[in-house]
User: Fold these one by one.
Assistant:
Number 1:
Amino acid sequence: MKSIAATALVAMCLLAQPAKSLCDDAAAGGVKVGEELVLMADGPGQTMRSYPAVAFGKDVFPVAWQEGWQGKEGSSRIFLARVGLDGKILDPKGIEIAACKTGVQEYPRVAFLDGVFLVVWNDMRNGKDCDVLAARVSPAGKVLDEKPIAVAAGPRTQAMPDVAADENGFMVVWHGFQDKDMFPKVFAARVGADGALGNPAVLTAGASCPRIAWNGKEHLVIYSTNRRKAWLRMDPAGKVVWNPERRTWSEGLQGDPFCSMCGLSREKGWAMVYHGGQPNWWYRALGIQRTARITPAGKIDAAPGDVMGHYGPKGGVVPPNWLDTSYRKKTQRNVGGSAATPTVFPYGGSALAQDGRHCVVVWQRYYMGGASNLELVNGDLLASRLDAWKPLDKPGVPVATSTAEEINPALAGNGSGKLLCVYEKVVDGRTSIAARTLQTR
Amino acid sequence: MKRKLRIVGAALAAGAALWLVGHGRAADESAPPPSPPGAAAATAPAMDLDNLPTTIFDDSVGDWVVDRFAGNSLTGSVLYQGPAREVGGLCTAHAPGQVVAAPDGTVYIMCGLSGGSYERLVEVSPDGTLRLLMGEKGLIEGPIGQCRASRPLWNPKENTLYLAGLNCIRKVVKKPDGSSWVELVAGIPYKAPEPKAPPKDGPAKQATLQSFYRGAVCNSRGTIFWLEDRGLRKIDSGTVSSIPLKFTEKTYGFHFIMRQNLLSLGEDDDTLYISDTYGGGHQRVLKCDVKTGTLTRVCGINTAVGNTYKRFGKAADGPPLSHASENSGITGHYDPFYNALWINGPDARRMRWMKLDGDRWVRTVMCAARPETKPQPFGLKELNSLGVPGEQVRCHYIYYAGTDSRGGLYLVRWTETDGVWRAYNKKEAKP
């Protein structure tokens, strides 16, 4: 009976267009990918736009991004456009969040709570150092704070914010330097849905680039240190409840990979996705995008056999939590080899969001090629549902796999199977912010 | 019979041009060390050349100071804006950054991943503010912020920043309104030479240039030299031409590994130093006379002529052609301020140099403490501090990244996003 059904399905795929999409869905596993949308292609940023972020609330996905060049002589600004559940762009001309005459704004993040979105970003309008600013936006697309909320605007660098919502309001985390400190600290401050700013608290010292996720009971804050990523647990009052100074291998990550996470539940903890090593000249590095669950106690729960080495998985068997890997795919040799055989190399950013039943991950994969054979080229995005750390849609559902660079994904879900994935799309050096709806089963 | 080298404290008699001065033998770029004079042997402590220690300290070792220049060991791998010592992301693993200092004190730092991905060019202004100048995506020509980064190259004749890479050379010009604009100078962007054909010379914008080139420098006449896997080329007066090379050893051609910063301008406009990094007959620093194309080994044990093989492939100091070597490949970069070649390599743990106005021995200058020096604790704090004594620095995989005209030597560590240090001799250079 099964073989008859499969034969019928193949026949439908070959003969009819409507059946083709059915076939694609069947091949794609549990994620259906919508058409590509381009947000504000003709904005003031000309050919430069970067770092999309997205959240969900009140039936809209607010997509925030950096419009324009953030470096010297740049004037990048944070823009936002809403996308409806039906995939329609509601603000085709975008909404500028915090107009100003000088400096640059970069790295936006966004969250939703109690009928408002909070956008946070790095702001360097003084031309010397970054501050952390925020502004609230209504689901109707109105900026509620004419003057941005100065979350951290003291002297020296205050940067790389992230935001999550919990039962008491928004919790903003960032890293900053105080007084004559040599190293940064990670801070947290409460911002209410009414825009009220709480007092900042130091979460940990000697750490940077925090990311935060709420699991219904506690926040997990993951941060970078010199040669590892570590994390802490924080209660809704902003009190650190777990951040051991000495850690076992299961309480941190080697290196400083790009990392995404989302809360699962208070019983299950958090899901996390991170990449392996970068390509190197001794062709020892392994491209990996892999998953883990952080338990409510703060330990890594990953697949057996997932080791941190660069030479290959233990026993030569790809662990089931590796979403994607270059292992056992053609090895790229040293410089001088052929550039005609690019090799898959999963590396870089990823994004996680809840669909109501599972976590969904979108990850980035490159090919190796270019002038040195070791350049990462033609970034693509793939997706899978996760059951804790276990991928359900291996080897991944293609989300954006054109010959253009499709990189830096962000993802949000409505909790009922609808998600929006936004990403940078680079064609001939020109970047746009693109989006696709994802529908899970 | 063992050769003995005697160390003498004063100058020797006239006519002994190849005899010993100071700690080693006199300058000679091709011959093995000569036997020492008998007169010196009677008065100086003996040094057994066959059993030289691998670390021989330079007299200046106590005078070197290392400052954190840009980047912070704990600021992650993303932020590229603000006070230079508070940013992260500089000089990531396996792709040592390249540092170019302009005469006005502005420093350009290139960083990215191995193989050329995620390349970003940042600028540190004299007041210590770091700004992203160009990112990893963008156009070839246009406003600088819309253009893709490639490696910095300073043109002293035009006092202009050039950009090398992506199969081309570009330059940054200032518009009347003060904005910066990137223009193509030579090469065809993203078009590499045909794999088995010679690179195409001719009018600059019709010539093909290797994208993952091995080094580029510009002399005071504005001539750009461009090192590729298959040879050396120059860009002069709007024309690209290949320089016919004459190897003076049986080992022809180059064998480069890993990196792009393998070429430096020498004592004059027509002298280059090329780091032919890796492999048995290679692993040498070559001096190139660009007028004749002649390449002469100046550092690195030449095992083909029976020299001390037991030191080959180790971080060994001593006479440059018979005893000096480096682990996993050797590099040499000329520093005009000190008239020295910085000797380094991919696995280096010490900074060493070969002074060209002395006996030309390779000696250790930094990152190793003399026996009489009590080592100080060295950790993250010291790694990010100012004024750290050079001999107290302990750093694996430390690598030369560039120099400036004030006697500064820029160092990076090529396994961590640890940023950039600036070392200088406190008796001779400026902080």
Number 2:
Amino acid sequence: MRNAPHWHQLSTARAASERERLANAPYFTLERVMAERRFTAIGTLHFKRGCGKDYRFRIRLEYPRHYPKTPPQVFDHDHVFTFTLDGHLFSTHEICLTLPERGEFTTISEHLTHEVLSATLIWCHKRLIFDRTGKWPGVAEKHGIDAVIDLLVERHVINDVTIISTWLHQHATINGRPCNPDIYAPCPCGSGKRLKFCHRDDLQPLFKRLMHILDLKKQRD
Amino acid sequence: MSWNEQRSTNRLRAEAQRITTTGITVTPLTREMDLHSLSTTDARLVTGVHLYADIANIDELLEDERLRRDNHKRLYRLLHLLRRELRHIIEPVFGGDKIQVQGAKFHGLLFRPYNDPEGMAELAIRAGIAMYTVLTDAISEIFPTYPELVPAIGIEYGECLVANIGVRGDRELISIGNAANTAAKILVGGDDAITIGSALYDYLNEDDRALFEASGTNYRLDCATTEEDLEAIIREIDVDWTLKSSIKRLQDEKDVLPLTDISIEEAREVIDITILGKTRAKIVAAASIFVDIDGYTSLVESLDGDQDKLAEAVKVLHLFRYELQRVAECDHHAIAVQHQGDRLQVLFHTPGDDDDEVMQNAIDVCIAFNSSVEDVLNKHHALLGPLHVAIGCDFGDALVGMLGVAGDRDPVVIGHATLFAEQLQLQLSGNHLGVTPTVYDAQTDELITEQFTHNEGIDAYEATGLTVNILEAAEDAKDAKAYNSAAAIASYTTKGAIVVGTRAPAQTVPLKITRPYCA
């Protein structure tokens, strides 16, 4: 898999149309695209505020191998923003746009580029407000595992972190290492049914993330 | 482009460094010096008499049908002739210097004979009388069909700081000091009269004092009703001036400047004031803005002649002048018309935009001025303590031109809006921005209108401490509230702004709002 070609290497037409989409976004000025191995685009998002101030932020989009099945990662290229947990920025200067499992972006779609760019534009706008007021405007996920728990609660799967934690350690680890869960184990929702016949579709995308977070937490403890 | 705090900070830092390296010297004016050879880094402390000659009924002249036709050509020529003649009176006849022409107002300074206040006072009131006579009798003789001019002459004696800090490389003197301020202020209400301040009155001889009557703290010679022979008063001293000679010069100048040579057209692109002249002017619907440094004159007075501190004061003035001009010209493409003492006159128009848009943008220009002063100059360059600006703004037709000859030219902007904007600015204190109801009503952005309150006393809308950062804080609160709404929708407008609300405006690009997270 490591040597498998990237999406843009499979079709130059797709790469060209992606460049065109980036170049046509009215709020984004494409600076350059690097496509030797990984497809990476650098450009500037720009917007005005009612008070008359102009804002420009250089961002870098790093496209995954399987784009557009997975959206590109967006980075604060000039490190303008300071890393803070509440400011929704990773220490790598990657912008936290959305919890991938929430499925906010329309993947495998020609709209994905606009969605990611415009979400980044809104993120920058919100981040400006956050930097001055100290409060993130609008809805945001909680930090760490709580965000995933929230998602599970929203999907009516569980309402207690300890239940899912215990369940994962019982049914999704081998010698303490995360693995695919046993689909014939009882569903953590407490219905008494097997996972396969109950909440498998809801839980499957979250297992890896939950395991990873729990693993990190264990290491910290 | 619009105002940017970082850009403003950077350019001011560079300019402050440059001026510190260059250095500014303040020295008293002596017999060997004159104001003609004043460099931009030298300032002079001048003890002399300030004379202001104004046309008090300029607003009526603007409306008069005889002067209005052909895009105010007649009024423009009249202003040109007057500037030339009043300058002649001040400079060759009375040995003084023209400081500036500010619209219909002429500012002259008499500083000879040196160290002889009685001699200066005697000359000054005669110069005032000569100016009055030109404005009335000479003009009536040359232009018998024109409406009569109502002159107002203000004269005061005192010390002031004179510097040469022209906008466009032309020799353009400014003077700072109470004497100049008083002379300008006592003009108001002094129609058809010569009004002098008490300092000047004290130096008059008995005969000259007898010409004046006390009027509050000032003294007034009511020229329209006096029984004195005004020309005879001038003849009492040895000066080479007669009414007849003035009439001849005005007639000669009129003959070489026929109306057919003057072209006044509507501006179809942003006016380049440097290419205007006595035969070329423009008419434009524009916003007139006056930005005045409140308390600067009293600051200079309080320094009590301390030359090091005065040099600091000139440096502060230079930085204000530099920054305000750049805000106008670089950040907003407005026209920095003229520095008038510690005040800047600005004209803002954008051909192609409708009037409402020009007025909306004009408020942005005003806010930018205040932002530069409050958030940059006062934060980083308050050498003698914080200073604030009072800003007045109105919108209307303006006649824009340039009077004089190469090397000694005065830009002129005449219009009702200019007069109202100036009056408004004069009534406001520092860190206040005033706009007329016309400008306020054109503003559609609630974020801005919410910052203004109606001041019934001056029939204008007034905002206190309004800066871009204050406005942005209000915008932050509004946008945060909109984002917190469950039905928040964000869009990108054609003007490049993000709008957040519960419904998308027409012709905008929808933007995606996501829920960010952090692992």
Number 3:
Amino acid sequence: MKRLLPKVITSGVGILLILTAFGARPGAGGAGPWPVRVFDYVDRNFTVWFNILAVFAFILGGASLLKGHMQRVMQRRPDWPYSVITLVSFIAVLVIGLGKLGGPPGLQGEVTDPAAWLMVVFAAIYEPLMATLFSLLAFFVASAAYRAFRLRSREASVLLGAAFVVLLGRTPLGAWLSDLLPRGLSFLRIDTLSMWVMRVPNVAGQRAVLIGIAVGVAALTLRILAGRDSVEGDRI
Amino acid sequence: MMRATGVGILEGLGRLDRRWLYLMLFVALGVTLVARPLFPESSSVFTRPVFARIESLARGAPVLVALDYSPASAPEIEPMAQALTRHLFLQGARPVFVTLWPEGNNMLQRLREQVFEPEFPDLVEGIDYAALGYKAGGRMVINALRQDLRSMYTADLRGVPLDSLPALAHVARLDQFPLIVALSGGTPGLKEWVLYGGDPTGTPVAGGCTGIGTPEFLAYFPAQLLGLLGGLKGASEYEAALAERYPALGIPRRAGRAMGPQTVAHVLILLFLVLGNLSYLRRRGPRRDGRRA
């Protein structure tokens, strides 16, 4: 029973939602035969139920973060001072955000009011930290290009060639260099080649991957609906 | 002698400390940031349909604008948000701002301070545009909007009930928007708006994403995705098109100005690629069959 019940619930809800995707008629105003009305009801309400559950996930996530870092501090595990910073930051931002501190008119005000402390935290701490972290990527990419991107094989050579064309083609320099080509060689324009790489080989590869993933997801879904995948049962 | 020196330099390049690379990049970017060059720009096949669609909108048309990005991707996506919002307001459309990211509310506030208030001071929130803000749930939020806008949002960010907002007077569901503009710095974002918003309702989706996300989203173009502003270049193309359409307004070219540093960075990375590989091929030497690597 402990294993069977979750499988029955999963299969039942899954099948109902698949039927709903095909049978519901959004905007019909609840008219039609009873199966359609059921599908409409599920379609209208299921997403709201999910969103209510998702909100509770925030509470669980916050509690889990608090528990993990408090344990680390109390047991003086390696790097525990970082956990202190995490805890202090988490609690401070939570209080500032929930209390809508600083913003008029208190709890009824907009959390993004320019006077709200949360906006000050966002503009003075969060924004510069995020910008700094991601700006560093430019330097790591430059270093990786120099040290790791090597012509080790034919495949790597093709990849390098494509990267060269796309990188140059996405800049005004690519267009400027292409303007130097004689008219008869206009098919060699770097911006045109860059667009071709993006639109043809790239899209072909991306679509192949997407379709492959979709087929895999469909197969996995069928296994779950049929109760042949025991992910839920094993964890309970 | 000269040849031996050249070979020595090439081999030495392979052992170059990465901090020299960082320094070169830092100096090159710094100089270009100060110089702020502006290059000519023309629209690509990905940008043009977005511009044309917004040009064809009727006055007062509601347009759903999703601001699904954070400060990390803002340098690439915020210029798009600014240019698109500017264009929507100039066309007399009514943008309805939502976000699937917690930081989205703050990004909307920045948009208010940078575009709404200085450039369109006569606009009235609730009438000329609506700010609904963030809801948790990702793709499920889109599903709920597809069904009933008011099941997910009962009030706007100010707490004003949706039913009393003229901007949303005739909008109850996603399919009643003539256009969805999804600006996305990751997940949930553009992909979710295409799969759960645009595809089931038939509403055209115009997208904006980071440069690194562009190849992924092109798989949906043009059938499922009306058009795509890919990275800083896409934003720069859109700004240039807008500046050409409204020459008297002096449209700011934030993305266009940022293309200079990006160009320099790209060129330096290409240079590092070439030098790194020359050094690698030199150190590896000829194969047994006489060919190089």
